[in-house]
Design brief:
The longest helix is centred in the C-terminal third of the chain and has 21 residues. The protein has about 325 residues and is of the alpha/beta class.
């Protein structure tokens, strides 16, 4: 996946590349704070001549403990892997957070996963890092384990930007209120959703607005509605688009769907992997009494999107996963 070695479970640890540097966390969004950690750990990995490994969790621990009450996520697992690969990560150990992992004693977590499993030489964590059963392990206990097992421990302070601590919580709140510019500033890259284009009901094509459809998780933080966007993956350059995100109440849709109408483009792109970069929220999702009303509004959305894009040209160098803001 994206040139990344993905270790999908504890049972697959035998296939891991051992040694090098590792860091642990949810890495939701792979924001500026995460990227600072990855740069620091990556530099150490290169000096050690080993891989840079990220240990992460799916589902997230908060999903396990809070279920449907858990905070929504900044990005999908696929996008997290895409962004981690772009940040220079060599391999990801994805741990399923279940009862076994939730009740694993802190010393066992270090020994079984980091030492015996990955053979790490260097570990970087945040200053608020907790681990093990009932979050009994912290930076102090981890320092004891590092001395016992002979790896180097490094602790990184919180990264601040734009007047506060950079955190997935802060970014999530911005996405939920449609402040995608603010979220992108904290992320350090333009916010995007990626996925494989799915077959849909073809209603958009019948109405004169063919769309590329992506299924979006219910727990993704981005606000529903109509967006101005740019889509990559359908040619050498990105394509301007109008995106509708939501459940399509006018046609009694059930799944949360992202429908991207690419402007001045009418090729079939089913099964392609695309990246949809979001720029401006035009309006909320609306229930229309009939398809004629829906069609009139789609024309108006397209007009508004063209006007905004004409006044705010989008640079494709910024709309890529390698492009970093600021």
């Amino acid at each position: 996946m994206f040139g990344l070695h993905l270790i999908r479970s504890r049972q697959q640890l035998a296939g891991a590349t051992r040694g090098g540097a590792a860091t642990i966390g949810n890495f939701d969004g792979v924001h500026r704070g995460h990227r600072a950690m990855l740069a620091r750990a990556g530099d150490r990995a290169r000096k050690l001549g080993g891989p840079l490994t990220v240990v992460t969790f799916e589902p997230r621990p908060v999903d396990y403990f809070l279920g449907d009450e858990a905070p929504r996520r900044v990005c999908t697992f696929r996008d997290k892997c895409r962004l981690l690969a772009g940040a220079g990560v060599d391999q990801v150990l994805n741990l399923r957070f279940d009862q076994d992992l939730a009740t694993m004693p802190a010393p066992d977590f270090v020994r079984e996963l980091l030492v015996d499993g990955l053979g790490i030489e260097y570990l970087l964590v945040g200053d608020d890092f907790r681990y093990g059963h009932r979050r009994a392990g912290d930076v102090k206990t981890l320092a004891v384990e590092a001395r016992r097992h002979g790896f180097e421990l490094d602790v990184m302070p919180t990264v601040a930007h734009a007047g506060g601590r950079v955190s997935s919580t802060r970014i999530r709140e911005q996405l939920e209120r449609a402040d995608v510019d603010g979220a992108s500033e904290l992320l350090g890259h333009r916010y995007a959703i990626s996925g494989r284009v799915r077959y849909g009901q073809k209603l958009g094509r019948e109405l004169g607005f063919p769309t590329a459809n992506l299924v979006v998780p219910d727990n993704l933080a981005l606000r529903d509605g109509v967006w101005v966007a740019r889509v990559h993956g359908v040619g050498e350059q990105g394509r301007d688009a109008v995106v509708s995100l939501g459940r399509r109440p006018t046609v009694e849709g059930r799944r949360r769907l992202l429908e991207a109408h690419l402007l001045d483009f009418d090729k079939r792109i089913y099964r392609k992997h695309v990246e949809v970069f979001l720029y401006r929220h035009l309006r909320e999702e609306i229930h229309f009494p009939d398809t004629d009303s829906l069609t009139r509004q789609m024309h108006e959305d397209t007009r508004e999107a063209r006007e905004w894009l004409a006044a705010n040209p989008v640079d494709d160098d910024v709309s890529t996963t390698s492009g970093v803001i600021g």
